[in-house]
Amino acid sequence: MDNGVKKVRQSINQRKKARGITGKEAGKRQVIPVFPQDEEKHGYMPIYDGQGATGGKKNSIMGGFLLKGILSTMLFFGVALVWEINAPVLQSPKEWTSGVLTEEFPFAKVNHWYQESFGTPLAVPPNGDKAESVTEEVLALPVSGSVTESFQANGTGIMIAPEDTSAVSALRDGVVVFAGNDSSTNKTIKIQHADGSVSTYGELSDLNVHLYQFVKSSQPIGHFTPQPDSTTVYFAIEKDKDYIDPVQVIKVDDSE
Questions:
Q1: What are phi and psi for residue 155, nearest 5 degrees?
Q2: Which of 46, 78, 156, 245 could cross-link to 53 by cystine, CB 3.0-4.6 Å?
Q3: Nearest to 37 by CA among 12, 57, 16
């Protein structure tokens, strides 16, 4: 009987030694069961760095970023190679890449589609209101005043002379694609509309909108204050890379 007890105790001591538990630690140290790590549950093998197991998930994220970086580099050099090789078969890819890189993204058209499909614009208007559907669009000059320079004389747009400090309003719903200083028309705002046209408002005194902001028809976008060296507002409409006479689109009071 004693021999059997001794053998059992010896077996227990041997297992404790194998686990690194000896002496007084055997009675104090608690053996914690090892559960599967999160990485093992999701099919990743844990990585041991000497301080414990670190997840393979972090490693997989880094690998994903590395893969995206490699693909981006390959795409860049691929486009560069297409442009360097003069071959008839590559003419269509060249035209496609040129259009993608130079043409303005149709923000207003996409926003209009989203609004019709889901009821609200992609960009929230500054006042937080939902965009209202307009059954009949009435177009008017962006600022009250007389036309002092016609489209035929200007070549790209018209010049409007307000009598006093006036608010400048958007021609129709759209997305701001430029808001800043232009070399030709100084403080300028350009708004892209759902039909692909772009309206331009130049020579302003201050701007009240920012880039890629959704604006509604007749919403104030800036102000103009007449100055000795600046008495007119520039207004133009462009569609399909051609300028359109605003007088043909809007009923204006031409003083000329």
A1: 100, -30
A2: 46
A3: 57
Verdict on whether the full-model pTM lies above 0.85: no
Non-local (6+) Cβ contacts of 254 within 8 A are: 146, 147, 150, 247
Q: Find tokens 């958007």 and name the residue.
A: 170
Q: Extract the tokens encoding 68.
A: 């995206």
What is the reported pLDDT for 74?
81
Higher-pLDDT residue of 100, 212:
212
Q: Residue 82: how many CB atoms within 10 A of its CB? A: 15
The answer for residues whose C-beta is within 8 angstroms of residue 129's C-beta and 6 or more apart is: none
Helix, strand or coil for residue 97?
helix
Closest Cα partner for 38 from 20, 18, 26, 53? 53
Residue 67: its pLDDT value, please? 82
Distance (Å, whole) CA 20 – CA 132: 75
pLDDT score of 89 more than 60: yes
Whether pLDDT at 93 is above 90? no
Geometric angle at alpha carbon 40, from 39 and 45, rounded to 5°: 80
Helix (H) or strand (E) holding 92: helix 91-102
Nearest to 224 by CA among 234, 216, 212: 234
The answer to whether 136 touches 188, Cβ cutoff 8 Å, is no
